[in-house]
C-alpha cells in the first residue's frame, strides 16, 4: 500500500457490480479490487441489488472505499405487460432510470470523496451518460471504458432506437479524456468513426482471467476416460452465437460412425434449450449427443472448464471486432479450444498462439476440427499459470493504473497552464 498522502481516488460508474451475475462483471470487480495496490482508492456508483436478474454471492465483493447503490428499474422487466414491452421504453437501454438517481448521488460523492478521475463502463449507455453529466459539472478527467462497440454499430437489429445512444456516444467521445476498448479492432473502428479526435484518445485494455479465482477452486479430477465432453459455458443468442453449424458437424461425424452417445457429449452450461434448437437436434438425429444444463456460480463454471476435454466458443461474424471475456478463462483452464469464429476476427487473432486451437465457421471444417480433437485427446493442461499470466487481471489493472496516472498528469498540466503557473 502507498502512503495515504500519495494515494488518489477513482469514482467508478458501473451498473454490473458484485453480486451481479453477468459475463462482464469480472472486469469491473477486479479493477476495483486490484487498483488499490497501485495507489488508488475506489468509490463505486452502481444500482441496488434487486435491479439484477441474477446474483452470485460465491465470489465475494471487493473491499473498496465506498459503494453507493441507487434505485433503478429494468424497463424490459418492470414495465413489461405479460412478458412484452414497448421498444422505446428501453432507450437508450433498459436501465435509463438509473440516471435519475445516480447523477445527484454522484455529485454528492464527488463533494464528499473528491475523486481525481471518473471511470465509467459500457455495455450500458446510461453509465456513460451519468459520467458525462458528472464530468460536465465537476471538470474531472474521465475515462470511458467502452469494452465493445455500441451495439447499433454492428447489429442491424439494434438500430431502430439508436439515435439517443449515438448522441450519448458522441458526447462521451468528445468529452472523455480517453476511450478504452478491449480489442484493437474495436479501437480502430472508433478511430474511423471519430476522425476529428486524436488517435491517442483511443486505447486498448483487453479482458483477462483472474488467478485468484482459480486458486479458490477445489482440485479438479482427471478428465474423464469415457465420454469426450465438449463444453460451452454461457448464453446462446441470435446471429452472433448460433450453434447450427456445430450441430451439423456433429451430424456428419455421427454419420461417419465417429460419434455416439457412449463416447461423446456436447454440454451447454447456463442456457436453456429453445424449441427451435430442440427441433433442429431432432431433425439431425443428434439429440442424444447434446445436453443443456442449468446455470451455476462463476467459480463452479471455472471448475467445470478445467475438467472438460475441450471448450467450445461461438463468436460469429457479427462480433468480429470483439473477444468474449470467457476466452481468457478458457485459456487459463488450459484445455483445447474449438472456436466457431471467422479467421479474420479479433477472437481468432487472440487464439493464434494458443497450442491446441481450431477456428472454423462451416460444418465440414468444424467436423474435421472436432475429429482432430478426438484423436489428440489430452488430459494435461496446455498452458501453465505462468505462461497464461500475460492475460491476468493483475496485468490489465496495471495498464489501467498507468492510464489513470496519465490523465491525472494531463489534467494537472492543463490546470497549471490555465492558471498561468509554470509558464516562463
UniProtKB/TrEMBL annotation:
InterPro entries: Glyco_trans_4-like_N. GO terms for molecular function: glycosyltransferase activity. Residues 26-195 form the Glycosyltransferase subfamily 4-like N-terminal domain. It holds the Pfam family Glyco_trans_4_4. This is Glycosyltransferase subfamily 4-like N-terminal domain-containing protein. It comes from Alishewanella aestuarii B11. The lineage of its organism: Bacteria, Pseudomonadati, Pseudomonadota, Gammaproteobacteria, Alteromonadales.
